[in-house]
Amino acid sequence: MWIFWSCVMDRRLILQGLECQASIGIYEAERVKPQRIKIDAEVRLYPATEPVDDKVDSTLNYDLIRETILKIVAARHYDLQETLARSLFDALRALDDVQSVRIRTAKPDAYSDCETIAYQLSNL
User: Fewer CB within 10 A of the terminal residue: the chain, N end or C end?
Assistant: First the structure.
């Protein structure tokens, strides 16, 4: 007798270390000159929509994740990382097939004595 265990797959797309220029910050120097930021995004996809073929149309194309992030970053000035992260979180969560999201924004050049200052928002 064969016993088949039901297993639900945890499907995630992870974009790590996307580096771009952003108008972000509350200080005058940050308002007049874009600064380098890094973004990590992790999206959990619904298990039932796993592609059964090898076609990009059958899944969430990760180009869309990257393009969505870059478009939002370039759209305007953000005073706070929290505001930028929320905008990114909401946009990624609204994509088809996305169940939950973790987004992390980081300002690696904010302080000379630490690697980065980051903010993370997640419903994973």
Answer: N
pTM over the 0.85 mark:
yes
Rg (CA), the chain: 18
Residues 90-115 have a mean pLDDT of 98
Q: Which of 82, 92, 96 is nearest to 42 (CA)?
A: 92
Task: CATH number for 11-122: choose from 3.40.50.410, 3.90.1200.10, 3.30.1130.10, 3.40.50.1860.
Answer: 3.30.1130.10
d(CA 83, CA 54): 37
Virtual torsion, Cα 76, 81, 87, 90, nearest 10 deg: 170
Report the DSSP beta bridge partners of residue 117.
107
Q: Which two tokens stand for residue 85?
A: 């992260």
Q: In this structure, what token pair is assigned to residue 108?
A: 């690696």
Inform me whether the pLDDT recorded for 66 exceeds 70. yes
Domain positions in the chain are: 11-122
d(C-alpha 122, C-alpha 124), whole Å:
6
